[in-house]
TrEMBL record:
It comes from Albibacterium bauzanense. One of its GO terms (biological process) is response to antibiotic. This is Erythromycin esterase-like protein. It holds the Pfam family Erythro_esteras.
């Protein structure tokens, strides 16, 4: 059984070893790149390598990540040469202050952002690669961004933004306080943010002060509405907030795709739990959907490529509790019988697996445990959690296996040798 997959697996050492994946992607417009944790160096390295090849060889238009829109939009404008040209990538990424900050404020992303800025510098303005955040959490930051823009360009809409800000003001930018204070929609801030969104939708065509002003303004208003709904329901049991979040992320992705035009090509960076099709995990048992499932359903399987990641053991950056100080933690050997343990037992070689319809009878079509490490992690509890039952060759179109991994390099932890880690040599 352990040798079944060899015909579709290849070693993984350099850029050229991604050739089978580039062939599998072919002319697909939507490539979603996962990760089995938010704190593993190699996942960021290989996603960057894939991303560079997609940009250089297949002319993808933008990267969309599991991050907040306002912070990522500043990176977008920086790499396109529109704003903050007196700053560095390090300075901009240090502004990512929502926990877990290390997801984007790390040296690996510094290297990516610097490369993107250099890459864009040789392109016409309308062909430059974008960088956007898909997540729903940035209620307060999005309202502040709206107020800043509208006060200069649309005084009437600015009044509505001010009313929304005043509604949320008593909660001190604390979503849990807001959620706990609500007993019904009648005493929420829902009407304030809906009125603001409706006004902005009517006015969007006049927000033409720069090429992306309308996109940015409407997206921040959409976040205000969806974040209010998310936080309003986070203390209850009647609404699946996971589904609210992933639906918002796909709606955001579609909004960006529309902005770039009919043939737009998107690269998405998110955790495996978001990009791996939920229908082939136990998530479906609780009614959970996710980004990978929705993109496949909306865009078609032929036009969507989902790439999962996994590893056997190593180290990772995480916290012991939500909001806790970050730590470099040991990731123990994968659970017996898990996908990662099976791959390790066959070989300790890093490798790329490509799945297609001829693989239906292989072992990876069984429902097996697949490791998933979150931002909160307790290595000692591995045998009780951190695994998602998965049909590997249905959940993903390809899978990158790294046998031994190292922890990510957060910005506030100075890299070894007092210089940026040499993470992304680029040669074929």
């Amino acid at each position: 059984m352990l040798n079944d997959y060899k015909e579709i697996a290849s070693g993984l050492k350099g850029f050229q070893d991604l050739d089978p994946l580039m062939l599998r992607i072919d002319n697909a417009h939507h490539v979603l790149l996962g990760e089995a944790s938010h704190g593993t160096h190699e996942y960021y390295v290989w996603r960057t390598r894939i991303t560079k090849r997609l940009l250089l060889e297949k002319k993808f238009n933008f990267i969309a990540v599991e991050g907040d829109w306002p912070d990522c939009y500043r990176i977008n404008r920086f790499i396109k040469g529109y704003a903050d040209q007196d700053k560095t990538a390090v300075e901009l990424l240090k502004a990512f202050d929502r926990w877990p900050t290390w997801m984007w404020a790390n040296w690996e992303i510094v290297a990516l952002i610097d490369w993107l800025k250099e890459y864009n510098s040789s392109l016409p303005a309308n062909e430059r690669v974008g960088f956007y955040g898909l997540d729903v959490y940035s209620l307060w930051e999005s309202l502040e961004a709206l107020m800043d823009y509208l006060s200069k360009h649309d005084p009437k809409a600015a009044e509505l933004a001010e009313e929304a800000i005043q509604c949320f003001e008593p909660y001190g930018e604390d979503e849990h306080r807001y959620a706990k204070s609500l007993h019904s929609i009648s005493n929420s801030c829902y009407e304030a943010v809906i009125s603001l969104l409706q006004e902005i939708r009517k006015k969007a065509p006049i927000y033409d002060h720069d090429p992306e002003a309308a996109l940015n303004t409407e997206q921040n208003a959409e976040i205000a509405v969806n974040a209010e709904r998310y936080y309003r329901n986070m203390m209850g049991f009647n609404v699946n907030t996971w589904n609210l979040r992933d639906t918002h992320m796909v709606d955001t992705l579609n909004r960006i795709l529309k902005f770039y035009g009919n043939e737009a090509k998107a690269i998405v960076w998110e955790h495996n739990t978001h990009i791996g099709d939920a229908r082939y995990t136990d998530m479906k048992d609780s009614g959970d959907i996710n980004v990978g499932q929705l993109v496949r359903q909306q865009k078609g399987k032929k036009d969507t490529v989902l790439v999962g990641f996994g590893s056997y053991e190593g180290t990772v950056i995480a916290g012991k509790n939500w909001g806790a100080a970050i730590e470099r933690m040991y990731v123990p050997a994968a659970r017996p019988g898990s996908i990662e343990e099976i791959l390790h037992e066959e070989s300790d070689e890093d490798r790329l697996l490509i799945f297609d319809s001829s693989n239906e009878s292989e072992w990876y079509n069984e429902m097996l445990p697949h490791r998933a490490i979150g931002v909160v992690y307790h290595p000692a509890f591995e045998k009780y959690g951190n695994y998602v039952p998965t049909k590997l060759n249905s959940r993903y179109d390809a899978f990158i296996y790294i046998d031994q991994t190292k922890a990510l390099h957060p910005l506030h932890i100075h890299p070894d040798g007092h210089k940026v880690p040499e993470t992304f040599p680029f040669e074929y």
